[in-house]
Design a protein that fits this description.
14-stranded antiparallel sheet; alpha/beta; 1358 residues; single chain; 44 strands; 15-stranded mixed sheet
Length: 1358
């Protein structure tokens, strides 16, 4: 033990020598200890995530700071520091509280290690933390004072707050150069040498322009300087107007005498009891008072301080003090060693505490040496209590378990051998196992909740756990009546008090940009498996990162077979594997429409890789707990195929779904699925390092990188149109819908809805053959006899196939059961409708699919839609599954999709729909293969919807991701109900609701490729993906998060974030062509121009955010468009909308832009672009009756405009690209009236990050109908006109995708430079969608002569 303590002392001395505390290997007790608290310029985005982590006191302080700052400023301090709030970190209300909190947290952390200062020195802002540490103020009071200080500074307009310049002096004479430069500028305004930090550094502070000019003069004189990232001129007269209001605020606080001396930077002396009364004026004056920090250090030196501890971030003051050569023999230490060495902070504090105490290492604690071995202190010991299980009858327990399993499965008792694997050999899922173990445990008097059955694979394994738990006496298992268990299972049914109420709602996933990272996590040394990509440069870059993290890399080829992976992972070395990085999907894959089996082989190979590696490493990763890591990399476009900027590889969806389930089964493991828009080795490796070394902020495991920005997924409520006037897009009754999935469950209910409610022919495809001769004997059984026939079927099967496993024999019974259900269901369907037909077809077989599709066309002609609902149920943890069986579940989903798609490539489909599951989006433990297949379907829908090469027909691809249905489907299995409904609290969806959602999605659905339907998720709710909702589940609890970011981008596509202002609300939106895909399609003289209708949309969205829920409807009173808002290619243009209430019913808005030069310099931070006034209505806007007779709207036209010719003629002046072209026709009724038809496209594609914007003013629709006016004016007098004003407008409803609409433009009055018009846009029944009055169009150019774009028609008026 003595040798151990000597080693410990050596370690402490080494640590102190490295820190500069000791100059020799002798222990000495030092003199006075001074704590240093820094001021401005020490902030960083990681300041709360480095040296403060692990400190309970600092953690509580930060929590308090979050609450106070949120109360005072409306955001959490930690969010703002990490870049996830509406104020940047440079804002005074972020910077000052953050520096104060971090520095005070450092002091608290030091005091946790029994380090108590003899003196406190605060540098400028740091004086507040020093006062708290001395006991003059409480931590909360100090923080509130700092916020007061920040607010008083922030009240000064930003352009008048000034700036600070750190000047570095190479020689003593240069200080005179600085003073001369300052003096030459002082006559023009406030500027001064604000702070002298050391003989080699001073800070110039004052008006921004003067500071910049002074910097240039210093540069010419050879003096180097750096503009501080503060944006405020502290310690200069530029802040004079903040002094008086700040002093008034300070007077409201109480002060107590300091318990530890504090040196004031204002007057360079001690803050004592006599100073307390003057503190409000002194601290307020600090804003404009110049000071010399050397004076404070001289006071500390005179007080005997010979060691300093820098408590703040970035170690700025420790470096400053170390440079003061006149301080004598002084040691300086700091706490912040940066993100890469954050753990060193605690070691240094422990070592410093040991030195200052003058003691040796304690003997009553455990001390770990560098190898991690634990030394026992004298007198300590570990006593392990053991239980003796002797006398317990092992056979009796096994028999009880076997009988219980036989009772619940219907298996013959003799086939349930005690040593067979319950899942792999017997096909008994984990749900049944839990139920049986609970039942037998109750009989034996054992509390199974406290036992670990995770490694119990067989009956005998379970028995050993039960016996080992305590001395048990085996009771007679037969005492429990068999019927009691059956009755209990039968009682587990889902009932709803009101079948007409919605038990599930509609949700849509959206990509959301995230700026903040979680806390850093420790990567322990060990082994890492790298499953390689095809590109060796990617592998090399990732390998380098792993090795830098002290991980030894074991490579597995990304295209390895199951046998190869088993061989490579069979060594003892596997036990050291704590990390898996899977790059296997990063390789070329075949096109889904390519001939042959190439694409399916790629899918199958990818699944084989991820499944085999997960199965091989599952146990060792589980043993590493929170130190285990799994990172899978995909290239699906940056965010699971959701973003339109790139078209990625959907096979990554297979991996994503599988890994989501893996994360739920290994809940402690650090898991990430990282998707990239572009695979570039160095940036990919850097991102992986970030993801490996940082925890999640909100349990996110799905991360995307798009153009370097970091995204995740949020699932938000987006209902279909609830308007009574919504026009349903019904499928044609002259064609048929083909549905895979047989005649059972969800598919059957949806098919019946189409046939009975919409009179649409439906063809069902299923594997089971009702006419199979082998089935006839079994079909003759009554339902009661069949329920007891499982054992007979399995015995006969064993006779025919002795080599078959019990699980395979059980599958045979299940297959016959499905065929019996098929016969019954078809008979029931035939009695209800003649519109549903059944064809035998295994959709995973391409030849069978082609044959079936040919039969369908031959009999029914046109196929209008595909609904791919086939699926195989699968339950069990990953280690218990077999690759062969789970691959079948993948084949039904993935290959079934491919076969149906290829077989209908030439059909004119209205939609291609797949039935998925919410587990594909969220994951579900025990269903890894099912979630993998469902996730792949969702990504296929996203990418097929966007890919012109794979979807030239531009038909909508939709994956409907269902929750569990209440009366039908796989989840009605009683064991599943017991877990999901009873234990986890998930609400099942009624059949009535499910059918309504299915019909609504087809007829009213939008352009969302992935749609989820669920009710209460209970314990299954993924906090990272599903934000807080209202009790109804249909609305977000808040429109904005705490940082001001808009949560639901579908409802507010033209707003990024919002913040309250003194006058009301300001919203911000960043425009750029990669995201705003309509911009290149709206050109004025060749330059992308923000459309006037989106000025309108952006301002109405802002007005609605300001109004909150205090309105029933809204209308426009006036819109003024002042100047063109140009967006140069790839530039990012920031726009703001300021909204304020004029009175109770009216809101004024103004849209401005940040106008920059081509090289990025800001010329005008608030360039006016447009303004509007809106009126809030007490009643919703509703179209009461038709306003246009659609049947006769084209009766009296005198000519038709040639739309293509119009576009060609105007292309060089005002150009409208594909996303702006909804017009089908435009007819001239007379010189002042134009009417026409237009249709909303199925895939609008206006934004890269919002698939289906829920616009408030129908902007693109209005723009297209407004084109009638542009055509009329170009034809009439050759003028190019643009809208400049609108006096009145009302929005009634937004049309659905693919909906036909009609417009009418009426000229009200002509002027020399333009005209006024009215617009009416209606649906196919003549009801208004929107209308606008007194819309002024003004000429901005003209052609040499009127355009010949009108052709005569056969109208009687010609």
């Amino acid at each position: 033990m003595e040798a151990n303590l000597q080693a410990y002392e050596k370690d402490m001395i080494r640590e102190l020598r490295q820190a500069g505390v000791l100059v020799s290997d002798t222990q000495s007790v030092v003199g006075g200890l001074g704590f240093l608290f820094p001021g401005h310029g020490t902030h960083s985005s990681t300041m709360f995530d480095t040296y403060l982590k692990g400190s309970s006191s600092a953690g509580k302080l930060i929590e308090m700071a979050d609450e106070v700052v949120n109360e005072r400023c409306g955001f959490r301090l930690t969010d703002a520091v990490r870049g996830n709030a509406r104020f940047p970190i440079e804002h005074p209300c972020v910077t000052q509280p953050a520096i104060f909190t971090a520095a005070l947290g450092g002091a608290l952390m030091a005091e946790e290690c029994s380090l108590h200062p003899s003196l406190l020195v605060g540098h400028s802002l740091g004086e507040y933390a020093a006062l708290v540490c001395s006991g003059v103020l409480t931590a909360e009071t100090g923080l509130r004072m700092v916020i007061d200080r920040a607010e008083c500074v922030a009240d000064i307009p930003q352009d008048r707050r000034g700036a600070m310049l750190a000047v570095l002096l190479d020689e003593d004479t240069q200080i005179a150069v600085v003073r001369r430069a300052v003096a030459t500028h002082a006559s023009r305004g406030p500027i001064s040498v604000g702070v002298i930090n050391s003989p080699r550094q001073v800070v110039v502070s004052g008006e921004h322009e003067l500071v910049i000019s002074c910097r240039e003069e210093l540069k010419r004189s050879g003096v180097s300087s750096t503009l501080l990232p503060i944006g405020v001129g502290f310690h200069s007269a530029v802040l004079a107007e903040a002094v008086a209001p700040f002093e008034e605020r300070l007077k409201q606080y109480s002060w107590t005498a300091p318990m530890t001396p504090v040196v004031s930077s204002v007057f360079g002396g001690y803050v004592d009891s006599d100073s307390l009364e003057a503190l409000p004026s002194l601290l307020a004056a600090q804003l404009i008072t110049q000071f010399d920090f050397r004076d404070s250090l001289k006071v500390a030196q005179d007080a005997g301080v010979d060691m300093y501890l820098d408590c703040g971030p970035r170690s700025v003051l420790s470096k400053l003090v170390s440079s003061q050569m006149n301080l004598g023999d002084v040691s300086v230490m700091h706490l912040d060693y940066g993100p890469a060495h954050a753990d060193r902070t605690r070691d240094v504090l422990t070592a410093l505490s040991w030195v200052r105490s003058g003691s040796v290492a304690p003997t009553d604690v455990e001390v770990a040496d560098v190898q991690g071995e634990v030394f026992e202190a004298p007198g300590s010991g570990v006593v392990e209590e053991t239980r003796d299980g002797a006398g317990v009858d092992m056979d009796a327990v096994c028999t009880a378990l076997r009988e219980a399993f036989a009772e619940r499965t219907g298996y013959p008792l003799e086939l349930i051998e005690a040593d067979l694997d319950l899942e792999a050999d017997l096909g008994i899922d984990s749900v049944k196992r839990v139920e049986v173990v609970g039942h037998v445990g109750e009989v034996l008097g054992v509390d199974v909740k406290e036992l670990d059955f995770s490694q119990a694979l067989s009956v005998s394994d379970i028995a050993e756990v039960l016996i080992g738990s305590q001395n048990v006496e085996v009771a007679d298992a037969q005492r429990t009546e068999a019927g009691a268990s059956d009755a209990q299972l039968d009682s587990v049914t889902i009932r709803y008090e009101d079948e007409s109420s919605r038990t599930a709602h509609r949700y849509v996933p959206q990509s959301v940009r995230i700026k903040s990272l979680g806390a850093e996590r420790t990567i322990l040394p060990g082994d890492a498996i790298l499953v390689t990509a095809a590109d060796q440069s990617v592998n090399d870059a990732v390998r380098k990162v792993l090795e830098e993290l002290n991980l030894t890399v074991i490579e597995i080829p990304g295209d390895a077979s199951e046998a190869t992976i088993k061989r490579l992972t069979s060594s003892d070395r596997l036990r050291r594997v704590s990390t898996v990085v899977d790059l296997s999907v990063l390789r070329p894959h075949a096109d889904i429409l390519s001939k042959g089996d190439a694409w399916w082989q790629d899918v199958e190979g990818q699944y084989t890789t991820v499944f085999s590696v997960a199965q091989a490493t599952y146990e060792t990763l589980q043993s590493h707990g929170e130190h285990a890591s799994w990172i899978s990399v995909t290239s699906s476009g940056g965010m699971s195929g959701m973003d339109l900027r790139t078209v990625g590889d959907p096979i990554g969806g297979l991996t994503a779904g599988f890994v989501k389930t893996l994360a739920l089964e290994l809940r402690q493991m650090h898991t990430r699925i990282v998707d990239f828009d572009v695979v570039e080795p160095s940036s990919l490796a850097g991102a992986l390092r970030t993801e490996l070394t940082h925890k999640a902020v909100n349990e996110e495991i799905e991360i995307g990188y798009i153009e370097g920005d970091r995204y995740t997924v949020r699932v938000l409520p987006v209902p279909v149109s609830s308007s009574d006037r919504a026009v349903r897009q019904s499928l044609s009754t002259d064609s048929c819908v083909v549905m895979s999935g047989g005649s059972r469950g969800i598919v059957r209910e949806c098919a019946l809805a189409l046939a009975e409610q919409r009179n649409i022919p439906v063809v069902l495809l299923g594997r089971s053959d009702p006419d199979d001769p082998e089935m006839k004997p079994w079909l003759a059984y009554s339902d009661e006899d069949w329920a007891n026939a499982r054992a007979e079927v399995m015995r006969q099967g064993r006779t025919r196939r002795p080599e078959a496993s019990v699980a395979e024999l059980s599958d045979e019974y299940r297959r016959i059961t499905y065929t019996r259900q098929l016969v019954t269901n078809l008979a029931d369907i035939d009695s209800r409708t003649d519109k549903i037909h059944y064809l035998v077809c295994d959709v995973s077989d391409p030849d069978q699919v082609d044959k079936a599709m040919a039969q369908v066309r031959s009999r029914f002609g046109k196929i209008s839609a595909i609904v791919h609902g086939a699926g195989l149920e699968s339950f069990g943890a990953i280690p218990r599954k077999s690759l062969k069986k789970t691959a079948k579940a993948i084949a039904v989903k993935a290959r079934g999709f491919q076969n149906l798609l290829r077989s209908t490539a030439e059909d004119d489909l209205s939609a291609f729909i797949s039935f998925g599951s919410i587990s594909g989006r969220f994951g579900m433990d025990g269903q890894s293969d099912y979630t993998a297949g469902a996730s792949l379907l969702a990504q296929m829908a996203h990418i097929m919807s966007r890919s012109q090469s794979q979807n030239p027909r531009t038909i909508p691809f939709i994956t409907m991701e269902w929750t569990a249905w209440g009366e039908v489907g796989m989840a009605t299995n009683p064991e599943v109900v017991s877990v999901q409904a009873n234990e986890r609290g998930m609400t099942y969806m009624s059949v009535a609701d499910g059918v309504r959602h299915f019909i609504d999605e087809i007829e009213l659905g939008t352009a969302n490729p992935e749609v989820l339907y669920f009710g209460e998720l209970g314990k299954n709710r993924p906090a990272a993906q599903v934000p807080e909702l209202t009790k109804s589940g249909t609305q977000l609890s808040a429109l904005m998060d705490k940082s001001g970011m808009i949560v639901n981008r579908s409802s507010f596509p033209m707003v990024d974030y919002a913040e309250t202002t003194e006058s009301g609300l300001q919203t911000t939106r960043v425009l750029w062509t990669e995201r705003d895909r309509y911009l290149p399609d709206h050109l004025v003289k060749g330059t992308a121009t923000f459309p006037g209708v989106l000025h309108f949309e952006t301002q109405i969205e802002t007005a609605l955010l300001l109004a909150g829920d205090q309105y029933a409807g809204i209308e426009l009173e006036q819109l003024d468009l002042q100047t063109f808002l140009k967006c140069r290619d790839r530039d990012r243009v920031t726009i703001h909308v300021d909204a304020k209430r004029v009175d109770e019913k009216r809101i004024d808005t103004e849209l401005t832009s940040v106008f920059r030069t081509p090289n990025g310099d800001v010329l005008d931070p608030r360039r006016p672009q447009s303004s509007a006034t809106f009126r809030l209505l007490d009643e919703p806007v509703s179209a009461k009756e038709p306003v246009l007779d659609i049947e006769h709207i084209f009766d009296d036209v005198i000519g038709e405009f040639d739309i293509d010719k119009y576009y060609a003629l105007t292309d060089s002046f005002i150009s409208f690209g594909p996303t702006f072209r909804y017009l089908n026709s435009a007819f001239l009724v007379d010189e002042n009236i134009v009417v026409g038809e237009l249709q909303i496209p199925g895939i609008p594609g206006l934004f890269s990050d919002v698939a289906d914007p829920n616009f408030r003013c129908n902007p693109i629709l209005v723009d297209n109908v407004g084109r009638f006016a542009l055509m009329r004016q170009l034809w009439r007098n050759g003028q190019y006109v643009v809208p400049t004003q609108m006096k009145s407008a009302r929005m009634y409803r937004c049309p659905q995708v693919r909906e036909r609409c009609f417009g009418k433009m009426t000229v009200l009055e002509d002027y020399e430079d333009g005209f006024d018009m009215r617009l009416d846009i209606v649906d196919e029944n003549g009801y208004l969608l929107c209308s606008g009055e007194h819309i002024r169009l003004t000429a901005i150019g003209s052609m040499p002569e009127p355009a010949d774009i009108l052709s005569n028609t056969t109208s009687p008026r010609i």
